[in-house]
């Protein structure tokens, strides 16, 4: 049989504990019910409702004010960034215009450089061709082309007096039947005639136009050696040139 001790209560004690617990539960339930009922009644009071609404609105207004302030700050930041962006776009546009102009200048300078290189190469080739002419011809040209370099050759060649003298020399060679070196001499004349024309915005002279099979005219052309007395032009041996106003300066030497 179990002994009575600390871990066991008498029947009377157990009954007392149960009754006490039941009363406690009943009191707490009655208190909760009363509190809830009182709270529900209070919530129907207009003053309580207004107070609750005021507290809620105050909290809402406070949060709304904070949101509005934050929104305003962000809008100001966006406006500032948009201004900076517009400023940078304007700078980029200016730089693009500058780059475009610089590219145009560079292209112009490059084209001019290439052109000058081409002209200089042609001058070099002509200078070398002159060195291959007969000693008699080179001796005759010394009065026109002075010096012993390509640079001096060009400087002398673009002077009008020397161009005119060169034309006269070529014409005399043709009229005396010495045409072996005419091709080189003709290339020399045409090159320096064109280079001289480039020194003016409006050239002072231009090459005389001669049409093949055109009827020969003494007032316009010179009849070359071994030509017919009259007839149609069959070959232009040396083109002449006229002034800008149409005056004939040098008549073309032709064969008919």
How would you portray this structure in words?
This protein is mostly helical and 256 residues long. Helix content is 65%, strand content 8%. It has six helices and six strands; from the N terminus they run ααααααββββββ. It has helices at residues 11-43, 46-131, 135-141, 150-157, 160-175, 182-197, and strands at residues 205-207, 221-223, 235-238, 241-243, 248-250, 252-255. The strands form two sheets. Strands 1-4-5 form a three-stranded antiparallel beta sheet, with no helix packed on it. Strands 2-6-3 form a three-stranded mixed beta sheet. Strand 4 (241-243) and strand 5 form a beta hairpin. Helix 2 (46-131) runs antiparallel to helix 6 (182-197) and helix 5 (160-175) packs antiparallel against helix 6 (182-197). The longest helix has 86 residues, at 46-131. The radius of gyration is 57 Å and the shape is rod-shaped.
Key traits:
256 residues; mainly alpha; 3-stranded antiparallel β-sheet; 3-stranded mixed β-sheet; 8% strand; rod-shaped; disordered N terminus
Short description:
This protein is mainly alpha-helical. It has six helices and six strands. The chain starts with 10 loop residues before the first helix and ends with a strand.
Major beta sheet, strand line-up = 1-4-5
Global Rg: 57 Å
Tell me the number of helical segments per DSSP (H or I, 4 or more residues long). 6
Derived structural class: mainly alpha
Task: Characterize the largest beta sheet: strand count, sense, and whether it forms a barrel.
Answer: 3 strands, antiparallel
Low-confidence stretches: 1-9
Number of E-type strands = 6
Strand fraction: 5-15%
Query: Mean pLDDT score, rounded?
Result: 82
Order of helices and strands: HHHHHHEEEEEE
Structural shape: rod-shaped
Give the N-terminus to C-terminus distance in angstroms. 165 Å
Helix proportion range: 55-70%
């Amino acid at each position: 049989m179990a002994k009575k001790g600390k871990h066991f209560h008498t029947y009377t004690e157990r009954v007392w504990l149960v009754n006490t617990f039941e009363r406690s539960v009943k009191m707490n339930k009655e208190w909760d019910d009363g509190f809830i009922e009182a709270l529900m009644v209070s919530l129907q009071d207009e003053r309580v409702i207004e107070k609750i609404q005021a507290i809620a609105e105050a909290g809402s207004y406070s949060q709304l004010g904070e949101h509005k302030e934050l929104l305003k700050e962000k809008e100001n930041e966006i406006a500032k960034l948009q201004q900076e962006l517009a400023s940078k776009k304007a700078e980029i546009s200016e730089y693009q215009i500058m780059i475009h102009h610089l590219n145009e200048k560079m292209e112009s300078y490059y084209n001019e450089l290439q052109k000058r290189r081409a002209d200089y190469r042609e001058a070099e080739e002509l200078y070398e061709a002159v060195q291959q002419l007969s000693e008699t011809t080179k001796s005759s040209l010394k009065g026109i082309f002075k010096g012993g370099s390509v640079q001096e050759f060009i400087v002398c060649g673009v002077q009008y007096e020397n161009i005119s003298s060169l034309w006269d020399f070529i014409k005399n060679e043709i009229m005396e039947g010495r045409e072996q070196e005419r091709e080189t001499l003709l290339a020399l004349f045409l090159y320096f005639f064109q280079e001289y024309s480039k020194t003016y915005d409006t050239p002072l002279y231009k090459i005389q136009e001669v049409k093949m099979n055109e009827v020969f005219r003494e007032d316009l052309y010179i009849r070359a050696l071994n030509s017919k007395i009259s007839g149609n032009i069959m070959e232009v041996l040396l083109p002449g040139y006229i002034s800008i106003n149409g005056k004939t300066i040098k008549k073309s030497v032709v064969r008919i």
